[in-house]
Design brief:
transmembrane helix; 209 residues; transmembrane; Immunoglobulin-like; extended; membrane; single chain; 13% helix
Length: 209
Amino acid sequence: MNNPSRIDAFGVMLITITKTPVAGDEVREMSQRRTICILMVLILALPLLPISGVSASLSDEGEGWALQAQDIVAIFESNAESTTITWRSIDDANFAEKLWDATFHVYRHDQPMNETLISGMNPIFSIDACDKIETGNPNDCLGGRVDGIHSVTYQISPGVNGSYYYAVTTELLNGTETMELTPDASQLSVPVLEVTTAVRTPFYVQGEF
């Protein structure tokens, strides 16, 4: 170890201590740096690595073959006096191709709906579960994809003041309409309040030509 000394401009002696590295210290330092570099690479690459055994699919209610609508939500917009109903398709790839030939029917009633009640009703909307022409891959119509999300907007009649349920059924290729109607999946468990203004007809009209 060398301890050279010098005197600065103020007359104070400065002693500089220089430590000569030992070979063992250099090896340990290089090993530590290498370990840190490897850890940083692993941390950065972790999001890119596939995780086996973990499914990214969403959790579905009901039987897969029935293609029941999932996660139904209805929101009333007071300014537009309309209700938007949103839901998604199932997210089970085993039944993806069946979505190509399925149709969703949307119903509205002031009471919770069941199969008997719906059998005497007409749907307010009917839309394809998956457009085969626009969507070349049926997996793109699964509930976890953009094309698997469905939304319709229903214009409420004037003078309405009440709470209403919405439900979505699925018509299969063979014409069977499945009606599992699971709460919060294909039917609202809580009705949505809809209040619209009444139409006021003028009672006195006067004009000149």
